[in-house]
Design a protein that fits this description.
Strand order of the largest sheet: 1-2-3-4-5
Radius of gyration: 13 Å
Helix content: 25-40%
Number of helices: 3
Largest sheet: 5 strands, antiparallel
Strand content: 25-35%
Number of domains: 1
Order of helices and strands: HEEEEHEH
């Protein structure tokens, strides 16, 4: 049996909720969404290419909480400055994580 890593499921849920939010304006962002891995953390990164800002979304490695790091982009891993700027949300607080991202993206 194949099993998807929980952190990928969590990060994908945040991204899907963000992209399907009524407040999300696709015309205001240019960038890419891809996967990343940093040791035991696995997740997705939203990279705003025109601003060189990246949001690394994962499940925190020491808890089940949602973690979003904000910083510069680093291919396949997480940048040092992003690692120093983490934001945590309770495991089931998808709304809190999405609201924070919408505010960061200037849509709220």
């Amino acid at each position: 049996m194949l099993k998807k890593i929980t952190s990928l499921i969590v990060s994908e849920a945040v991204i899907n909720k963000l992209l399907n939010s009524e407040q999300f304006d696709h015309s205001k962002v240019d960038g890419l969404i891809e996967c990343y891995q940093n040791g035991r953390e696995h997740g997705h990164v939203i990279w705003l290419t025109t601003k060189n800002v990246a949001y690394y979304i994962c499940q925190a490695r020491r808890s089940d909480d949602i973690c979003i790091y904000k910083g510069s982009y680093a291919m396949q891993s997480i940048s040092e400055d992003a690692y120093r700027h983490s934001n945590s949300f309770k495991y089931n607080d998808l709304d809190g994580a999405v609201d924070w991202l919408l505010t960061e993206l200037g849509m709220k």
